[in-house]
């Protein structure tokens, strides 16, 4: 244990006796495939009063991004601060996909645990192995029905209550209450048409009280008609897609009311004034050009950060570019814990390339750069991509661009995609902003000016006028890949030789 670390640990325990140190806890709420279906982000159709109330006590980040558009990889980056290619969670954790982080990864729950902070998880865990992601209190899909711990908001409320009650039992027994980190990972508004179609495409019928659906006592479902919904630019405007979105909105009402219940428990337990609350989602929404893509529509996330100690910017919108890679540094900063010095590869020490968001709660920051890195989703979906988004430019590197872009099971059977396939095959208008062929076959480098081309349709990579921009971004992206020990750093036209001095050795493969 380093001296600094030991000192911080001591401080957490005794500083309050000195008088200045306040009690500090964290509540992290992550939605599953959630997007901007909320009036917090100016979607005026979807009613989300509880997210709205949270946003009034938060800084609202308008430019928040995940570093990977896939569930387990994203959750591993949230809980480690390391991109998927560095922590080892290259794809989905469950079933045959079986991806896991490296045994040596020192995750956020592990570090908090070592610092005597009590950790809890309720809902979707979807990361492993167990010893890398330890929680003192756990109600997840590993031991429960995911519908219950991830979508039944009454059940979730009761589990949150149980967590807070056990905090207090511990205090009464030891006369010392440990700070806590509680991670509530909703499974809403994820699709369920591929797994439990009886409950609807987004499980929007689960617990609505209709025959065979069961009842979730705390949920008052909100219904929307297909002609009412707002179709984002990257979704085909068709009756099938509109019906799909209307179902998604109903599930968002369960998420929103669930967030309200969790925050009410926090308040009722007396923790509201001591707890940093972060709300975000793991990846883009499960629609064409969304989840599994590194386009804006696949990586842009809602992000609310609510600190009871930083009220000066409550309700304000920040333009700063922030990443889910910033969540671990933010929480470590909140608890005044350093990131330990250790190595995963045996060579260089691991560095966090994200940063604490706490300064943005005090004043607007001029952060303009975020990175992304995707390798797989399902085990069959190898399509490595890296990207940098800086100011007005987004650069993507599609390393295996000669392969068709892969499609996942859950998205494949969605009404929106089936309709798109049918329309494409039968030559009918698709109502989409690109063709299926363009979607499947991409250029190796894609450079977009999101200011003049927010829908990312004009690839500027081949335009000589943008050569300096392209080169500058490519160099920065490569630098980040080396810094984060990306095994794909030499792909696709060279081989990484790691021994002695790591270097790229050319393949002369014509790419
Ligand atoms: C919502 O719209 C208002 C008015 O155009 C704008 O000022 C604000 O930044 C928007 N909020 C978000 C989160 O995009
Ligand atoms: C949700 O959880 C509550 C409390 O455990 C239970 O009474 C209710 O039946 C559950 N609803 C469904 C649809 O499973
Ligand atoms: C929380 O802090 C605010 C502002 O200092 C105060 O008005 C409120 O009473 C506090 N709530 C609790 C439960 O202590
Ligand atoms: C697509 O076409 C198939 C075969 O004709 C049909 O069974 C299916 O219902 C269609 N799906 C949609 C969403 O239109």
UniProtKB/TrEMBL annotation:
Protein family according to the UniProt entry: Belongs to the sulfatase family.
Signal sequence range: 1-21
InterPro entries: Alkaline_phosphatase_core_sf, SGSH_C, Sulfatase_CS, Sulfatase_N
Domain Sulfatase N-terminal: from-to ranges: 24-335
Domain of life of the native organism: Eukaryota
Pfam families: SGSH_C, Sulfatase
Name of the protein this chain belongs to: N-sulfoglucosamine sulfohydrolase
Domain named N-sulphoglucosamine sulphohydrolase C-terminal: residues: 429-481
Organism: Onychostoma macrolepis
PROSITE patterns: SULFATASE_1 (PS00523)
GO molecular function: N-sulfoglucosamine sulfohydrolase activity
One GO BP: glycosaminoglycan catabolic process
UniProt xrefs under Gene3D superfamilies: Alkaline Phosphatase, subunit A
Cofactor: Ca(2+)
């Amino acid at each position: 244990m380093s001296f600094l670390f030991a000192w911080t640990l001591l401080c957490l325990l005794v500083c309050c006796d000195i008088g200045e140190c306040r009690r500090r806890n964290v509540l992290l709420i992550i939605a599953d495939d959630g997007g901007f279906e909320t009036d917090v982000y100016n979607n005026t159709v979807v009613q989300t009063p509880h997210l709205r109330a949270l946003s009034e006590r938060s800084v609202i980040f308008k430019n928040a991004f995940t570093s990977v558009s896939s569930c387990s990889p994203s959750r591993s980056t949230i809980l480690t601060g390391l991109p998927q290619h560095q922590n080892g969670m290259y794809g989905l954790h469950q079933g045959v996909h079986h991806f896991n982080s490296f045994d040596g990864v020192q995750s956020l729950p592990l570090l908090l645990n070592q610092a005597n902070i009590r950790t809890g998880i309720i809902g979707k865990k979807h990361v492993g192995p167990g010893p890398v992601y330890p929680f003192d209190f756990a109600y997840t899909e590993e031991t429960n029905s995911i519908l219950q711990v991830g979508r039944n908001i009454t059940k979730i409320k009761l589990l949150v209550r149980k967590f807070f009650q056990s905090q207090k039992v511990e205090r009464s027994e030891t006369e010392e209450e440990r700070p806590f980190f509680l991670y509530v990972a909703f499974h809403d508004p994820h699709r369920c048409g591929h797994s439990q179609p009886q409950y609807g495409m987004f499980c929007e019928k689960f617990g609505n009280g209709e025959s065979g659906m069961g009842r979730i006592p705390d949920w008052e479902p909100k219904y929307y008609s297909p002609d009412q919904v707002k179709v984002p630019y990257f979704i085909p405007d068709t009756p099938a897609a509109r019906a799909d979105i209307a179902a998604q909105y109903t599930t968002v009402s369960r998420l929103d009311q669930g967030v309200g219940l969790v925050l009410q428990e926090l308040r009722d337990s007396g923790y509201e004034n001591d707890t940093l609350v972060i709300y975000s989602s793991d990846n883009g929404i499960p629609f064409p050009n969304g989840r599994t893509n590194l386009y804006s529509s696949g990586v842009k996330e809602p992000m609310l950060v609510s600190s009871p100690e930083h009220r000066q910017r409550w309700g304000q919108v920040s333009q700063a570019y922030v990443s889910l890679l910033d969540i671990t540094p933010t929480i470590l900063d909140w608890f005044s814990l350093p990131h330990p010095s250790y190595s995963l590869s045996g060579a260089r020490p691991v560095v966090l390339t994200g940063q604490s968001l706490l300064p943005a709660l005090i004043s607007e920051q001029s952060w303009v750069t975020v990175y992304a890195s995707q390798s797989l989703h399902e085990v069959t979906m190898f399509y490595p991509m890296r990207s940098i988004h800086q100011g007005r430019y987004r650069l993507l590197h599609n390393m295996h661009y000669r392969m068709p872009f892969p499609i996942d099971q859950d998205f494949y059977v969605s009404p929106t995609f089936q309709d798109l396939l049918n329309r494409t095959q039968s030559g009918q208008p698709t109502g989409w902003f690109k063709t299926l062929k363009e979607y499947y076959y991409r250029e190796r480098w894609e450079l977009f000016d999101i200011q003049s081309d927010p829908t990312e349709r004009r690839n500027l990579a081949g335009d000589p006028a943008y050569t300096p921009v392209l080169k500058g971004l490519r160099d920065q992206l490569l630098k980040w890949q080396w810094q984060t020990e990306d095994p794909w750093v030499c792909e696709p036209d060279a081989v990484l030789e790691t021994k002695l001095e790591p270097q790229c050795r050319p393949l002369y493969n014509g790419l």
